[in-house]
From TrEMBL:
Residues 676-729 form the FlgD/Vpr Ig-like domain. Residues 481-556, 560-628 form the IPT/TIG domain. It comes from Pontibacter arcticus. The lineage of its organism: Bacteria, Pseudomonadati, Bacteroidota, Cytophagia, Cytophagales. It comes from the Bacteria. Keywords: Membrane, Transmembrane, Transmembrane helix. This is Por secretion system C-terminal sorting domain-containing protein. The chain crosses the membrane at residues 21-38. The keyword Transmembrane applies. InterPro entries: FlgD/Vpr_Ig-like, Ig-like_fold, Ig_E-set, IPT_dom, Quinoprotein_ADH-like_sf, Secre_tail.
Amino acid sequence: MKTTFTLSHFIFNANALKNRLHYFVLAFVLVAATYTGAQAQTKLWDKTYGGNDYDDLQKMVALPDGGFLLAGDSYSGKSGDKTQPLMAPCSEYEGCKNDFWIIRTDANGKKLWDKTIGTTNFESFTYDNLTTVVATPDGGFLLGGSTQYDWYDSNYLVIKIDANGNKLWEKQYGGTDTDELRAIVATPDGGFMLAGSSVSSIGRDKTANNKSGVCDSFDGNCPFDNWLVKIDAKGNKVWDKTIGGANSDDLATIVATPDGGYLLGGTSGSSKSGDKSEARVGGACDEYGNCPLDYWVVKVDATGKKVWDKTIGSTNNDNLNALTLATDGSFLVSGTSTTGKGESITHTIWTVKLTNTGAKVWEQHFKKEAGAKFAAQVATKDGGYLLGGSYYTTECEDYTEFCSDDYWVIKLSATGAKQWEKAIKGNSGDILSTMIATNDGHYLLGGRSVSGAGNDKSETNRGQADYWVVKLSGTVTEPAPQIASFSPGAGLPGAKVTITGANLGSATSVLFNGVAAKFKVISKTTLETLVPATAKSGRIQVKTAGGSSISKNTFTVLQPSIVKINPMAAKVGSTVLVTGTHLNTAKEVSINGTLAKSFTVYKNNVLKITVPKGATTGKVSIILAGGAKVTSTRDLKIIKATVNALAVTTEPTEIVAYPNPFSTSVTICLTLVKPENVHMVVYNSAGHIIRSVAFGKLEAGSQRLLWDGTNNQGNLVTDGIYFYKLTANGNVTTGRLLKSNSAR
C-alpha cells in the first residue's frame, strides 16, 4: 500500500521539528514487514484516539475500576476526539506548540473524558513534552515531562491533577540550560523522586555542576548527567543530586528498591571517571567527541548517595530504555543495540538479567532483518517478562514513501527463553511506546500510529498521527510438544544431542530418564541438549507450557570403563597404561585421590599416565569432560625403586601394547628402574621366530619399543596372531598381538 503526503505535513517551526524529528524518521513508514508469531496471542480490542494533527501517546496507567489513563502530548486543536484547543494558538511563523493530552477510558477503551494541559506561566507559551505519569494516593495523578521555551533551555515540568483531570498545581525545576525529566517514582514519605538528565551548571534549582563539564551551546557539545530531584507531596523541592562521568550520561528510568533506595537505568558514553567506576565497554570516542554508548545502572540510597554502579555494554552503541525489579531483588534491563553507520545502521533489542549487585545472569538479543527498537517491558505473573518494541523494514522503492513499523511483543520465561512473539500491525507506520499489565491478567499496548483501518487496526486515523491502544490476551493455550526423533541415539555424559519435533520453541525442561539436562532452543522444531552427568539410559522427555512429550526410543547413556592397568605396580614418575572404553574425553585422572598432572589419550581406549608425586597405593579414577566418572576395581600399587630391571608383570594376560590390534606397527611400553640391555623376539602362531630385535642398553625410566611389523628379511608380516617376548636383566615379559589391516 502507498500513501501520499502533502507538503503541509512537514511545515513546522524549528523548535517543533527538533522535538519531533525522531517521530518522522520512524513513524511515517509504508511497506509492511511480514511476521508469523510462534504462538498466536488474541487481540481483544483496539482503539484509536486523535485530533487533526500529531498526537503522541507516551504512558498509560491501569486504574482500580478496570479503566485506563492515557497520557501523551498533542499538536492537535479541538477536533476529533480532542475536546479542548491547544493552550496557545498556532502562528504562521512558529506553527503549533504541543501540550499534554490526557484521556480517561473505561475497561473497554471507551473514552470518558479528555483534558489538554500545558504551561501558562511564561511570557510566551512553550512546547510541553510528556514522558511519564504516576498515580497518587488521593486518586489523582502526577504528570511529568519537560517544557521547552527556546533552543537551549528546558525544565522539568510536573503537573498535579485530580481524578477528573483538573489541574491542582504546576511546578518547574531547572538549572541554567537543558533539563529533561524522564521518570517519576513515589517515595515512602508521600513525596516523589524526579529522575532525568541535565546539562545545566549550578543555578536555579541545581546545586552542583555537571561531572561532564559545562555545556557549549554554540557548538552543540552539551553532555548530559543524571539529575535527581526530591520533592514533597506538594511539589516543593527537598534536595537534588547530580550523578555522572566525564562524558554524556543520559538517564531513562528509575525504580524504588525494597531497602528504601533506588535503581537508576540509562545510557553512558563515559569512561571510568566521576561517579562511574568502570571503563566504557564500547571503546574509544571518535575525533569529534562522539563516544560509544553502554547501559549504565546506578544504585543510590534514600538520600541519592551512590552505593554502586554497573556498566553493561558491547562493541555496539547500547541505549537502555527500561529497568524492571524482580521479587528476588534481581532486575532486567532492556534497550536497543545499534551497529553500523549511515545507511548501514542496524538496530536490535538487547535484554540482560542482572543480580541484585549487578552481576550478569543471562542475556538475549532479538532482531528482525531490517532492525527493531525496544520500548517497554513488564513482569508477568509466571515470573517471566513481556518485552515490547517495534520492528521495521528498509524496503522502500524511492524517497517519496516511507517504510512501515509494527508493534512487536516477545514473551520470555524466567530464565530468558523466548516462549512466543507477536506482531500487531496497521497498514502503515505504528510505533509502540508503552505497555502495561491490566487488572484482569491481560496486556495493554500503546503508541502512535499513522495507519488507517486495516490489518489489526479497526478504526480510521483521525489526524496525521494518533494514539493507538491494543488490548492483548494475557493467556495462551499452547499445543503440546511432540518429539519426532533425536540424534545420536547414544552418547557419553556431556555429549550434544539434537531433538527434533513440533512445538518445542517454548521448552521449559529436557530430561534424560528423569534427570534434568541443559538445553538450548534452536527453533520451534529443534532443541540442542547435553547428556547429564548422572543420567542413565532411558527415554527423553521435553516439557513446555503446553504439556510434555516422551520419546518412543531409548537413549543409551554410554559410560567409561577401565579394563586393564599395566603395570599394576609402579613408582612415582613412571608410566602406567590404563586401557578401557570411552576414555577419549578424559579431563582429570587421579591415583588414590592424587591428581596426575601428566597424562595422554591414545585413540579412544588407552591413557598413558605419569604417576604423580605424592601418589599412594589405591584406585585409579578418571573424570570425563562431560562429568562421567569411572574408578578401577583394583588398586595400583605404588612402589619404591628396586634393582629389578622390568617394572612390569610377567603374566601374559596383563600385557598391554598399543594399538592392538595394529595395521602396520605396534608400540610396547615398559619402565626400567636402571639402565639395562633389552631384547625382543616376535613369534608367529606356529611358534617360529620371525623377528629378533636387540635394543641395546636403554636408560632408566619409561621406554617405548617399536616393532614396525616386518620380519628379519624386512618384509611386512601377514595378518594374524603373534607373540612377543621381552628380556631384560634375566626377567621375561610376554604378550599377544593381532595384526589386521582393518585396524587402520
